[in-house]
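[job 4417] fold queue: 2 targets
>>> target A
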Amino acid sequence: MFLIKEIQAAGFFLRVAVIVLLFASEAFCSTIHVNVPGDVEVKGEEVTLGQIAKIRGDDQKMIQRLGEVVIAKAPGPGQTLSLRREDILSMIRRNPDLSLEIFWELPETVTIRSDHVLVSKEKIIQWVTEAILLKINWPKDRVKVHPLSPGQDLLLPRGKITHEIFFPRNGFNQRVVPVGVLFRVDGKICRRIWVNTRIDLYQPVVVAVKPMAKGTIIGPDDVGIELRPMRNSRRPVLTDLNQAAGKRTKRAIHFSQPISADLLEVPPLVTPGKIVRIIAEKDMLRVSTIGQVKGKGGAGDMVRVMNLVSKKIVYGVVVDSKTVKVEF
């Protein structure tokens, strides 16, 4: 009788042990394992647990829900964010429906970095220069673009990066031209920057190839053509050698100086006191006499001249250095 009771007691404890093992096994199987490394790289604007951790377990729905929990706002491109162990656990506790057994492998501090793409300042300047050359109405080999600031490299989130370049409303009619560059990542506006530039437009100009004193009659060996930046000036420079040939300098001109029209004058063919022939023509009649010029003038200029025979002063047009023509 005692033996039977002992066997029944043993059976009871055995059944209890089996039940305990079953519950323990079920609890073990439902445990979620979360492994978070100490240094992770993320994409996007938010940091979720699924981005920074490896989550394992049998309950796939719970794993998915855990992975979607937002831990923090993602750091900017090239920046880092440090999260304490307690910060991460605190965000999980804010979701009471996720109260289940979780086995954590979590360091005291997790460093989070944002995945990014570097866009070099050299590349940005290249884009700006190419856009200006396409936009401006000037021969491309006569345009130089000078960035006025060194700029800096840009760090943008990884994705499909596109850029758009835009110019000020008044175009290029200013000394400093700010050029805008708009960056989009996956179609969303990400960054806008400005690149200040100076744009030099070059044109061929007449320059002195040697120093010239006042009163020099310009010959073919005195001037040449060089490409020079255009400048807003009230004294437009000459752009053709023929515009300077045979002219006389009104003041001294130094080597390599651009020559403007106001620096030159047409040398007079006649000067005061010069003896010339005075001619008068009408129909088939031609009359000539000797005269003395009382002023100076070039071809086509009206000058006073005295008839040396009659001693009268008449007005005539300079034909050449020896002839003045008067009207009857």
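>>> target B
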Amino acid sequence: MNGALVAVSAAAGAILGIPLELLVEKVPGRVLLATADPSDDPTTDPTTDPTGDPVGVLDAQGGADLGDEPAEDSGSDPAGPVTAGTGGPRVMLYRMLLLSLVTALFLAGAAVRFGPHLELAAYDLLILGLVTMSAVDLERMIIPVRLLYPTAAVFAAVLLAVAGVDGRWNDFWVAAATAAACFAVFLAIHLIVPAGMGFGDVRLAGLLGGAAGWISPKVAAVGFVVAFGLGAVIGVALMVFRGYGGKSRVPFAPFLVAGALVAFQWGRPIAHFWLHTG
């Protein structure tokens, strides 16, 4: 392990994590109606937004849906719309420090995992995007394509360069195939249970599947198993300790990202333990 590389990566993460707060604040939030109590309206369905479209839920089994685009205001509330996810200066400072710490830890972990190789740059850039998207999803219940698409494009471009320089074309095509397979699986879930899996999750799953597939398709499988496991545990905990109902809305992107980061770091040994194969 290159200690200097890890230290530099951690310091860079601490610095780069600070302006991520600005990106989080610039993403528009989901528009909600300012009703006193939605349950007072018998026509209100907790699984739909003001336009009647399905919104994100996390049930006790860990399934989740993320509205990936802001909902439009129906204009029916005389008090006017309010945007979810806005916080005061204290919240912003807390989140800025948290983003800095989390980014530092993740970039340091990437340095340990990949070492002084070009692919480290790809995963560093990916991590910056994933941390930002997770923060946005926690704050606003959306996975913005304005963050996801550039992150995916830059990541794929750097991996393409790595494949060309190091002759790792097989790894590149395996990663592409894994990304397509993960996208297809999540798309099927979305089509079967649209209220349980948002299309934002589908797109993110494709990106994470490709990133883990570069290491190994088994690593990708580990990441998604961990993600759904975490989702199930947190879902049950929220129901027990916070009184959340079976249709309470909880963002799923942080679980997907957490599962992927665990897989990047320890996916191979976990897969070996589970499957008794290398």
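[job 4417] complete. Note on B: Residues 31-85 have pLDDT under 50 and may be disordered.
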